[in-house]
Design a protein that fits this description.
heterodimer; A: 548 residues; alpha/beta; 6-stranded mixed β-sheet; 9 strands; elongated; B: alpha/beta; 7-stranded mixed β-sheet; 25 strands; globular
Chain lengths: 548, 717
């Protein structure tokens, strides 16, 4: 054991008797305490002297927490003298750093606990988004890629894979798979068996813990495949996803499309034939546009019907006509994407339709993890207001009511309250099923008229801009990303959308107009009310002066 | 019921002579108290000493056998006042609390206790919550020892040393008729180590004995003329006695060579960090064998003049390692040297920072600079003039990338909906002045809620809003106080004050059935049965008793709609005087700890159990994250869809969800979106359940097949 230690990471440091320094950074509630107790136990099983400390208190309420362990072989056996262990990690003096979440690994690097000369960094690559990342209306998530790159540079050895996944798959906690990774890394001079004895001795959930331990061990040894890293297109991890949709489109279309061309469809022959015609039209589109267009077409047909699909392609082709390969069809691809979203606006009919599909029931059972013998009861939360009510009325009638505030208020008082609908009950399901059935009349309803007008204004604006500024036209289409949410959130989104496009007159004719419109859109996605956007708009307003 | 069960730890308290105690520092202190024949123990929970309280609370049997009285005091002042039992009677007593917050509360009692002095040993164990992870203002307990002239021990941070400090503390207290403060830093309280135990000792005189033979001595009562004599006695008798004890018993320690051109003086608590720095400078080994003379102050007040002066004998320079500010010890030593006309140069805060925690790096830099300047020859060449390692620069700065992760509400916390409702009310009525208090609910200060302007102390939330009471203002102040703070002193200082001064503000009492932030200890209004404490005293009754007329009780905080309506009414009603809302729901952390095992057991036994969980329909969620701006629940997060048509991540609820209901309630109250669903899983359904389910799914299945047979259905759609 002792020879082994002399080859431990702490080798060659003046007078520290082969002391090993290990820090654990975790998110409160991840079980970092359990892990550090285990590690101390393993060390003592192997005749080491060890000490662990932590900073408890409210820091452990979902915040970033740190545990620290020091261990060394008992060189003065029987002398009754204990080594002097430090109570907190020091910058540049940590041999092993275990991070139970990727950004915590980043935090460790920031704090100087990871150094290329000596630190083995063992991190779970999964993410637990911090509140600041979740509350952005856009995508506020930090870049995992950046942290991983930095970790490679900052550490002597970087072992990272999704240990949370391994833990969950084995019905255990991440502390177990982390311990497995530590053992598997071989950075501590202790045999695997001693780790397993420790886990076994800990009592509760031993079987699952040992399984998760083994999982972590194998991957760290490189004997098992790494679980996929949660770096998904769409996240800021690769902003490229937004600028060159082609890449991510083909990437993801590859996953959503089974081999053999168009998506597998089932239904009445008449409809399947219709779909074939639509697919044929798709295939006449430029190769670059096809993947996105196929996804868009499918979404639109699924949303309404094949006629709607034809409308979609008619619109899309207008963009294709105005564009040449020189631009890599950026406009057409953006159109294929955002037209589909614009046509598939979120109304009560769509929500009801989606919530009453058989596939949905299956997905809920899967996500909630309902065992075969258990029964699932599903409650939906609806809060209709007069706006939604009028939206689902024939256009004339809807307008009639909306034009009469008193009447609208009267109706609102009757319907505006939270409704909880049991979609596992007959009555509840039937109600939504009927609303979903209103699909066939959708074209005649007020909401459709409003959305169509809005869509056409926006689309025409883009098409009219292509000739003079292709890039700007693309950005006008991308502005559609701002439109989302229901009720008040949707209203706020609309106003952001309008405010962004309100900058066009100021931007038109500028070489960097497209960049500015993109910046405005990104600013609009930063906060709820659009304060950042207003700031950016002020800046844009001053641009004109500079030109003049 | 505390957050943790200490059944295992309690058994360690039974260890006898020669057996090895292995465990947390704070538990070692607990065991040491029993080994010292303590007669009574009181205190108020709070990191880092909560575990001491929790273990004793779980150790009633052992305490009973030994005739030791344990009290979970109402406040730190109560705990310190309890030490009055050692004024006239030769009974050893101990009080413990978080410092400096607890010491602030205790100082009235502390001053009176210190004036009259004690007969039995009185030990005050203060857990220092200073530096990383601290949740309180950064101050020193040292000042309290100085102003009340009680002695302050600051032992080296290892189990044998702190156990010895407890023993020394009692003897010092008795030898000098003075209460003694034992200071342990947070990491020392949570350090896991070992020491050799002794048998527990039954107190020579128990509180029962004392009750049977009452004594009094007017000379010990704080009342003129005695109080004037006390002041003189402190300096004339108690101080010299303390100095003699500390010197004769070698409480302070010397390490390293007898002689040397330089030396280092440090607080006991700083010893390990100093040795580590010396190790890294190549001047000490793993066991603390060092080439630099060290003078370690396990007693930091009073200081022993001649001990220090003899240490300085023949030294050119001495460095004082004293964490925190002001630097009382350094100042005192400087005065000693000056008065003694010594030439030794005394340095401290020149090399070490005036303020802030002395972390490993700070210590390495400080000691390094000191040695490079004062004794360069001690250092090896590479340490004296290190070659710059280029490595550092290459590593990019990711401080802009890595998001901060402050503590926040737990999964399913019943306080979350309270602040969601408050945020909704402010969206309607505009922003208000909001006064916060100490406790988990203080997390409202942080995103996503961003509510609360000040925190002035435990139970002082409403008190800190008392100035905002003006007939000229249209708006009212809102103040929060937790149940812990309410019973600690909020009832009088906040509620009573508001009633008496006819404050028109709104007061929300957050009642989660425990003193939750400190580890879920029971309090007067706890709903749990407690073998040794009287619980189930409703906060509402106490508030009514104080004379509050406008009182509302919300017994399910997750009802965001009701919470919002009640807050709105409180802010708008014409009723005069304080509007008090008691918002009650059990702390989810403790509730899960209690219920989870029971529920799983029931399910395995085949009982019918309904388990709720929330979910999001990802194709209905548009990724605007409005729900998260009203939640911040760890189980509600963002998830990327591999759909190129969608740019932004959608909401997702992971398997840690406990189905508290906040998501649905908020989506409803704030009219957010219909993406959320509650899935109630009926485990072990009964015959009727299964029958009804079969019927329903038959009909539902029929309708679904009917529609899906008339439309295009895409694979994996």
């Amino acid at each position: 054991m002792l020879e082994k230690t002399s080859s431990s990471p702490a080798e060659g440091k003046a007078g520290d008797g082969g002391m090993i320094k290990l820090a654990i950074l975790a998110v409160g509630g991840q079980g970092g305490g359990v892990l550090s107790d285990w590690i101390v136990d393993v060390a003592e099983r192997n005749g080491y002297l060890a000490q662990s400390t932590s900073v408890a208190g409210v820091a452990q309420r979902t915040g970033a927490t740190i545990y620290y362990i020091e261990m060394c072989p008992d060189l003065k056996l029987g002398a009754g003298r204990l080594p002097v262990f430090a109570l907190s990690p020091s910058q540049g003096d940590v041999d092993i750093l275990i991070a139970a979440e990727l950004m915590e690994a980043g935090r460790a690097i920031m704090r100087g606990f990871v150094t290329p000369e000596k630190t083995t960094l063992i991190a779970s690559s999964h993410r637990i988004a911090a509140v600041s990342e979740k509350i952005e209306p856009g995508d506020g998530r930090a870049s995992s890629a950046k942290v991983r790159e930095t970790a490679e540079l900052a550490s002597k050895r970087f072992i990272a894979f999704d240990m949370e996944k391994i833990a969950v798959e084995n019905g255990s906690m991440i502390s177990a798979s982390l311990l497995g990774a530590l053992a598997g890394s071989g950075v501590l001079p202790f045999p695997r068996a001693s780790y397993e004895q420790t886990v076994a001795a800990s009592g509760r959930g031993v079987k699952q813990s040992l399984a998760a331990f083994a999982g972590g061990f194998e991957v760290a040894q490189g004997r098992a495949a790494h679980p996929a890293h949660p770096v998904v297109p769409g996240g800021p991890q690769d902003k490229a996803a937004e600028h060159s949709p082609v890449r991510s489109a083909t990437a993801a279309a590859g996953q959503t499309r089974p081999a053999g061309g168009g998506p597998a469809v089932a239904g009445p022959d008449r409809l399947v034939d219709g779909w074939r015609h639509l697919s044929a039209r798709l295939d006449r589109l430029p190769e670059e546009v096809r993947d996105m267009a196929r996804l868009g077409l499918r979404k639109v047909v699924d949303y309404q019907d094949e006629a709607y699909g034809r409308e979609y392609l008619d619109l899309l082709e207008q963009a294709v006509e105005r564009e040449c390969a020189a631009h890599g069809y950026a406009l057409s691809i953006a159109a294929a994407k955002h037209l589909a979203n614009a046509l598939c606006y979120d109304d009560m009919i769509r929500v009801a339709d989606l919530k009453t599909r058989s596939t949905r029931g299956a997905r809920v059972r899967r996500e909630v993890g309902v065992k075969a013998d258990a029964i699932l009861q599903t409650t939906e939360y609806f809060h209709p207001r007069v706006e939604e009510f009028c939206g689902t009325l024939p256009a004339r009638l809807g307008c009639y009511i909306e034009d009469r505030p008193k009447l609208a208020a009267f109706i609102d008082r009757r319907i505006n309250r939270g409704r909880r609908i049991r979609t596992d009950s007959f009555s509840g399901f039937a109600m939504l099923w009927l609303i979903g059935g209103m699909r066939r009349w959708r074209r005649s309803l007020l909401r459709h008229k409003v959305e169509q007008a809005h869509m056409r204004r926006w689309y025409q604006l883009a098409l009219d801009t292509v000739a003079e500024d292709h890039a700007l036209a693309v950005e006008i289409l991308n502005t559609r990303r701002l439109i989302k949410g229901y009720s008040d959130t949707h209203v706020r989104a609309q106003s952001k959308f309008d405010r962004v496009l309100s900058a066009l007159p100021m931007l038109k004719g500028r070489p960097d107009a497209a960049d500015w419109l993109r910046r405005l859109r990104e600013a609009a996605l930063k906060d709820e009310k659009g304060d950042m956007l207003d700031g950016a708009l002020k800046t844009v307003a001053t641009l004109g002066d500079q030109v003049a | 019921m505390a957050e943790r069960s200490f059944a295992k730890e309690v058994e360690k308290l039974r260890l006898g002579d020669g057996e090895e105690f292995a465990g947390e520092g704070i538990l070692a202190i607990t065991k040491a108290l029993l080994q010292c024949g303590v007669g009574y123990v009181g205190g108020y929970q709070g990191a880092p000493i909560s575990h001491l309280m929790d273990v004793l609370a779980d150790a009633q049997d052992i305490l009973g056998e030994l005739g030791v009285h344990f009290e979970a005091s109402a406040s730190e002042a109560t705990a310190t006042a309890m030490l009055a039992a050692s004024v006239h009677y030769p009974i050893r007593g101990a009080a413990t609390f978080k410092s400096t917050v607890g010491t602030n509360v205790a100082s009235d009692a502390l001053a009176n206790l210190a004036s009259g002095g004690v007969t039995g040993g009185a030990l005050i164990i203060v857990g220092e919550d200073y530096g990383e992870g601290s949740s309180i203002m950064q101050e020193r307990s040292h000042a309290f020892a100085m102003k009340s002239q009680v002695w302050l021990l600051d032992p080296r941070p290892n189990l044998p040393s702190i156990v010895k400090a407890v023993e020394d503390g009692f003897e010092l207290s008795e030898a000098s008729n003075t209460p003694v403060m034992l200071q342990v830093r947070i990491r020392c309280c949570h350090v896991h180590g070992k020491f050799t135990a002794k048998d527990n000792v039954r107190p020579a005189m128990t509180v029962a004995d004392a009750l049977e033979q009452p004594r009094r001595d007017t000379g010990r009562i704080v009342l003129p003329p005695a109080s004037f004599l006390h002041e003189k006695e402190k300096v004339a008798k108690r101080w010299p006695a303390a100095v003699d004890f500390i010197r004769s018993r070698n409480i302070n320690e010397f390490f390293g060579p007898e002689h040397g051109a330089i030396g280092i003086v440090c607080q006991g608590g700083m010893y390990n960090a100093v040795i580590r720095a010396l190790q890294r400078l190549g001047l000490a080994d793993a066991y603390g064998e060092t080439d630099v003379p060290l003078y370690v102050l396990n007693a930091v007040y009073p200081l022993i003049d001649d001990e220090f002066l003899s240490f300085c004998e023949g030294k050119d320079a001495v460095l004082v390692v004293e964490e925190g500010q002001p630097n009382y010890i350094e100042q005192a030593f400087a005065a000693m040297l000056h008065k003694a006309g010594r030439g030794t140069r005394l340095v401290g805060k020149e090399y070490l920072p005036m303020a802030g925690e002395y972390t490993g790096q700070v210590m390495l830099d400080g000691l390094g600079d000191f040695l490079r300047t004062e004794a360069p020859l001690l250092l090896s060449a590479e340490i004296r003039a290190p070659n710059k390692t280029g490595q550092g620069e290459e590593i990019p700065d990711i401080s802009k990338v890595v998001p901060g992760r402050p503590p926040g509400f737990c999964i399913g916390c019943p306080e979350r909906p309270i602040f969601a409702a408050t945020k909704l009310v402010e969206q309607e009525l505009g922003p208000h002045h909001i006064a916060s208090d100490i406790g988990c609910h203080l997390f409202s200060i942080m995103p996503p809620f961003d509510l609360g302007a000040t925190t002035m102390g435990y139970g002082l939330g409403p008190a800190s809003a008392s100035a905002f009471n003006s007939p000229d203002a249209k708006r009212r102040s809102i103040s929060f106080v937790g149940d812990g703070g309410f019973w600690h002193n909020g009832l009088t200082s906040s509620i009573g004050n508001a009633v008496f001064n006819k404050n028109d503000g709104v007061i929300v009492i957050v009642d989660n059935f425990y003193s939750a932030a400190t580890g879920g200890q029971d309090i007067l209004s706890s709903r749990a049965d407690n073998r040794t404490k009287a619980t189930k005293h409703p906060i509402t009754k106490a508030v009514e008793g104080m004379g509050v007329k406008w009182l509302r009780h919300i017994d399910r905080t997750y009802d965001v709609g009701k919470m919002r309506a009640t807050l709105k009414e409180a802010l708008t009603t014409d009723e005069k005087g304080p509007k008090v809302i008691v918002a009650s729901s059990e702390c989810m952390l403790n509730r899960q700890r209690r219920e989870k095992p029971l529920v799983n057991k029931a399910i395995n036994e085949g009982q019918r159990i309904v388990k709720p969980k929330f979910g999001v329909d990802e194709d209905i969620c548009t990724g605007d994250h409005a729900c998260m701006r009203l939640s911040g629940c760890p189980s509600l997060s963002v998830k990327s869809l591999d759909d190129p048509l969608r740019d932004d991540p959608v909401a997702h609820i992971d398997q840690t969800c406990v189905g508290c209901g906040n998501c649905g309630e908020v989506a409803d109250a704030a009219v957010l979106c219909p993406s959320f669903y509650r899935a109630d899983v009926v485990h072990n359904p009964g015959r009727w359940d299964r029958f009804a389910d079969r019927m329903r799914s038959a009909v539902i299945g029929f309708l679904q097949r009917r529609r899906e047979s008339r439309r295009l259905v895409f694979a994996d759609a």
